[in-house]
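Provenance

Sequences were taken from public entries as deposited. Structures were produced by running a predictor on each sequence independently, with no templates supplied. The record for Phosphoglycolate phosphatase from Neisseria lisongii is shown for reference.
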Amino acid sequence: MALPAIEHVQAVAFDLDGTLCDSVPDLAAAANSMRLYLGMDELPQQTVESYVGDGIAKLVHRVITNDREREADPKIWEKGFIYYMHYYRAHLSDLTRPYPETEAGLALLKSLGIPLVVITNKTEILAVELLKQLKLADYFSLILGGDSLSEKKPSPLPLRHAAEVLGIAPENMLMVGDSRNDILAAKAAGCLSVGVTFGYGDMPLLSQDPATKPDWLIGALPEIYEHLQPQKPQENN
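Predicted structure for Phosphoglycolate phosphatase:
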């Protein structure tokens, strides 16, 4: 991405799971505890990882059926969902950790006076609590979960809502994420999209399709600062 295209960034939005932190170990542990509770065999962690990204309600369907598209029987799903939420909330950050340069990247962006937000499909109460447990919550002006509004990513609604709350135009906000949902939501909202290469999504594959190709790829969050920071003196002139 050419530097002039990011001169006017006034806020940065981040996905949570697979972007700010690696939460799959705890999501998978909850999934397998739920499957055992329902009398099923455990799934490999990699399989559970492939089901992450559309919120816990959808994750529970996929984990029960072991199928990305098929939905579970409603009664079994309800029993599993209640168990999953109870277990996962009690073990949110047992094994979940921020990616190595997450905090450094957030601190650098904060030093520029740019408001930061989280836009995740994770349930809001779990997202807020997880960010608190990881000691990252204070970096963010706004945290939106998958149940905060009437629609979640890939809908552009959460991004447009965040921009409205911050009093900026969507085109002046970056959306940073690891998945198809993040890129689609950014493009639909008119935001610049930044894909991370270290998350759960297959960014090289997504980059081959114009519909899901991010405007910019990064291998670590501090790279955002490195691209924005040189613009700051020009903006202050």
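The radius of gyration is 18 Å.
The CA atoms of residues 7 and 145 lie 28 Å apart.
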